[in-house]
């Protein structure tokens, strides 16, 4: 159980300290105000761009999950780094996931629904309560994801996303989410 606590603390610190680290003076440009529409181009745009909630359903275990994500901008043309944390409940299992994911957005036009594809790695912490015993298991997972995203006039974005896990925890997820521009 101590390993589980350490992973949870590390994930929480990464989310809490992420914006501060992203805006530290490292020579990279942190986007703000006038850069709202400058999300795609031949240069990279690395830096804290926003955060948002996500909610959805998963299969095997059959759960409702919710969480939050951070947008750290593009490290390559059209490729965005967006780590997230999710917590799922149901099917006698509590599942906590910390994911480091990147996605390729197929268009630089933000005012239309645009597809994206990506993937990443994640830490999955499963707590199983079978009535008599409560066990915990931690696994490293690989995710593939795809979705549709639409930018709004104020810089915020809305998305619908599907995700499959190559390590079977959970088999698949579908989520909706919102990214608040920073």
Written description of the protein model:
Helices cover 12% and strands 58% of the residues. The chain starts with a helix and ends with a strand. Mean pLDDT is 82; it is low at 19-42. The chain has one helix spanning 2-22; strands at residues 45-59, 63-76, 79-81, 84-90, 93-105, 114-129, 134-151, 157-165, 172-181. The protein has a single domain, classed as Porin. The relative contact order is 0.19. It has 182 residues and is mainly beta. The protein is elongated. Strand 8 and strand 9 (172-181) form a beta hairpin. Strands 1, 2, 3, 4, 5, 6, 7, 8 and 9 form a 9-stranded antiparallel sheet that branches. The protein contains 1 helix and 9 strands.
Give a brief description.
With 182 residues, the protein is mainly beta. 12% of the residues lie in helices and 58% in strands.
Question: Helices, strands, pairings?
Answer:
Blueprint lengths: L1 H21 L22 E15 L3 E14 L2 E3 L2 E7 L2 E13 L8 E16 L4 E18 L5 E9 L6 E10 L1
Antiparallel strand pairs: 1-2, 1-9, 2-3, 2-4, 3-5, 4-5, 5-6, 6-7, 7-8, 8-9
